[in-house]
Amino acid sequence: MEPLFLKKRTDKFFKQSPLIHCVTNEITCESMANALLYVNSKPIMADDPREFDELFQQTNSLLLNLGHLSPEREKQLIISSEYAKRFKTPTVIDVVGVSASSLRKKLALALMTNEPQVVKGNTSEMKKLVDLESHGRGVDGHASDQNQASLEKLSEKLKEYTSKYPETCFLATGETDVIVTKEATYFLKNGVPELDKITGTGDMVGALIASLLGQGETVETSLVIAVSYFNLCGEKAAQQVSQPIPMSDFRNQLMNQLSTLLEEGKWWKDIKGEIK
To answer: Which residues take part in binding ATP (predicted)?
Structure first.
């Protein structure tokens, strides 16, 4: 698949160095920071609201991650979201764990009122967010939420949410990644199963989206390119290790590919999927 808009400026993906402000969980903080550095971005993991007035005058995009929640972190997320709206900072919200508790879902919906450009989660999390039956457990998605009928139903519901939240596009990640905008729905098909066996892969995808938004790409382009780039890195990594795949070796190769695939000529030609 090569959407028409990808014929423009494809030589510039990940070539700039935006400053990405991350309010995120401690569990995958290092992986996210490294992923941003590997694609020429500059991460700052800052969650103290006393800095926000100065920071939002410098940063190019904001990434909010609900992964490790506490009363203090909830305040940080809400305040940073309000600053982003005030400064018109492109924002990605990763609704980690909304399948696990109503508290996270309530927070996610509150953050969405501040008009983020992207709301993302795994398929089970996104189904829970939009009031569809979800089989997610904790922060993990469930295979039964990823069959074609389930994805079609989810995409239809997310399309309704683009009317309710007209400034926001939605991403549901899984074996098939679903992107829903006001204009189109994408079903992306790249990736390997091993990506689900590593902590923080979804968080890193969120970071890549924020990177592209921070360098001025459109929301649609940022979503398609970030998701596909990460999944193609997973495919390349799986080819570099022995069989059966040792997960620690796969993870190291995945991180290597994040920093090298972008230098290969026209890697986006390998994007698979369809647009509806």
So the answer is: 120, 173
